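Q: Could you fold this chain for me?
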Amino acid sequence: MSKKSRKSAITDEEDGLQSFRHIPGWLEWVLVFAAAIAASLLIRTYVVEFYEIPSGSMLETIQEGDRVIGEKLSYRVSEPKAGDIITFEDPVSSGTTLIKRVIATGGQTVDLIDGSVYVDGEKLDESYTLGKQSLPLDEQAAGVTISYPYTVPEGYLWVMGDNRTNSLDSRYFGAIPISSVSSRVIWTYWPLSSWGGF
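A: Sure. Below is the predicted structure, expressed as structure tokens.
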């Protein structure tokens, strides 16, 4: 390329950069702000969500008022498993998100015997309940009928709060569809005294 051609190409490039730099400052801020909002919405829709815990149904694992992170990626390639703490749409109150622990998955049988939970005939070791009894609840108020032993339908989950004496869960509204699950709770980020993963 001749010196003249190179000089022309450089001048054209500089002209292009100059024209970009001449975007008004206010418009640059608008574009940056719009991009930040779009990125935030994409992250919250597809990657993580932040929740504040409104009740004590997951005590002592999660405290009332704690703020937690729910990640959304793992359930795009796998299904929830027993022990996962999940968020899901309340089957009784539309538009409300609940947080509970998965106890059993599709095809497994749940039983409540003498205040303990059995899955497929095996008593669960649930230290996170701090010895609180797991008793049947009056599910009639939720409009469902549950008899034990209960076999979880395929595509559904049996969920329970860790605070067994103060949790409306699958004992109340039955098994929940996997399709209603929105995230897997992985971390408490506030307050700092509760900082940590599950």
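A (continued): Helices lie at 3-21, 25-46, 170-173.
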